[in-house]
Amino acid sequence: MQKIPALILSDEYSTSEVIKLYLSEFENLEITDNQHNFEKISDILSETQSQALFIVDLSAGEDEKINLIQKVAAECKTCKILALSDNPTIDLIIRIMRAGAKEFIPIPIIKNEILEAVNKIITDLDKPKRNNKCKIISVFSNKGGMGKTSLASNLALELATITKEKVALIDMNFQMGDITTFLDLKPSFNISYMLENIDKINETFLLSTLEKYKNTSLYILADPPYFKQADNIQPKQISKLFNILKDTFSYIIVDAESSFDGKNIAALDNSDIIFLVTAANLPALRNSQRCLELFGKLGYDKDKTQIIINRYMENDEIKETDVERVLSKKIYWKIPNNYFAIMSAINKGVPVSTINSNSNLAQSYRDLAQYISDNMYKQNLVDKFENILQQ
To answer: Whole-angstrom Cα distance, residue 226 to residue 229?
Structure first.
């Protein structure tokens, strides 16, 4: 049996010895002596042709070691990283996981915790784990011209860029979809083809069928090119498709249709979050009120729907507090008004960040993606600690 190399980095000799003692219980691990040369560590792991385990203690030299984790995660795709620290704050853990670590345990080390974490990593190395932490986000407005497609496409790309995880962008506008126009794509396949072959779908099929956006981890599932193709799509097929996509993608962003037909409701039902896109004007807010009422009748939890104000200006006659009072709901995010940036991006078929990455609009999309990914990390940590407390 070929052993998995396990490399340990800790400034504390006692911590390193405890880790080696506990890891000795795994017959399929080959433990490498403690290393302190960061370049040597990176070279060893990036040159390995097999799977590897990297255990790094961040109790000292925190920033340097986070940079090392990021480098190893980028250069060694078959390497899994377990991080440790004697100062396990939520913010630190988020930084560590964002850098590329797969597991985290606090110091002092508890034997069953490190054994469980290492065993989970080894299992992941041996067999890819089903992705049960996928977040499905639908971007919705029942009023046209609110900018939901711009939000969906730019958010999806920023999530892929920031997290480096696989993100799916689905165009659910079966009659008048615009995602391919906004990103200047001519995909070979669309959602109708996917649903016709739904029983054949696996990860390989998905990644070869969905249109990959340039050199990113964003994959696009386009709307049908012909109106009649949408007629045969059933709501239960949408639910089944989402369940399949969840095994491959960490985020699914849905550009939802501006309607309440069965197919669209199926997408909303399966969503973890619905971003209700509106504007700070009376007609848009009245429409949003109706949407919130309907979501309540559909049985959606109040936290499932979040309000995003698009084209927001600080000097608007209707203020943020007015919006929150009218909708009886806090605003989740405000997208600034930048007509020239968004129209230039749409006309050229590129994301806003390509036009001007320093614009307030591009920064807002980036910050929103960062906020969503940070919240996902936090929720995963809460779930993990709750499971530990229940044991």
So the answer is: 6
- State the burial class of residue 339 (Cβ atoms within 10 Å of its Cβ: 0-12, 13-18, 19+): exposed
Specify the DSSP element, H or E, that contains 218.
strand 218-221
pLDDT for 228:
66
The pLDDT score that the predictor gives to residue 389 is 46
Strand blocks (E) in 256-329? 273-278, 305-312
Q: Measuring CA to CA, how many Å separate 333 from each of 277, 287, 308?
A: 10, 18, 5
| CB 170, CB 191: distance < 8 Å | yes
Residue identified by tokens 């896109």 is: 277
Residue among 182, 150, 136 at smallest CA distance from 308: 150
Residue type at position 140: F
pLDDT at 129: 45
How far does the chain reach from its first CA to its final CA, in angstroms? 33
Regions of the chain where pLDDT drops below 50: 128-131, 388-389
pLDDT tens by residue, 22-65: 999 988 888 876 666 677 777 777 666 568 889 999 999 999 99
Cα–Cα dist 306/148, whole Å: 13
Residues 283 and 143 sit within 8 Å (Cβ to Cβ): yes
- Shortest CA distance to 277 belongs to which of 373, 180, 145? 145
Please report the pLDDT score of residue 126 as a whole number: 58
Burial class of 318 by CB neighbour count within 10 A (0 to 12, 13 to 18, 19+): middle
Q: Long-range CB contacts (< 8 A, 24+ apart) of 73-79?
A: 73/99, 73/100, 73/101, 73/164, 74/100, 75/42, 75/45, 75/46, 76/45, 76/46, 76/48, 76/52, 78/48, 78/50, 78/51, 78/52, 78/125, 79/45, 79/48, 79/51, 79/52, 79/53, 79/54
CA distance 275 to 350: 22
Distance CA 182, CA 345 (A): 8
What structural domains and CATH numbers belong to the chain? 4-129 (3.40.50.2300), 135-386 (3.40.50.300)
Q: How far apart are CA 262 and CA 84, in angstroms?
A: 48
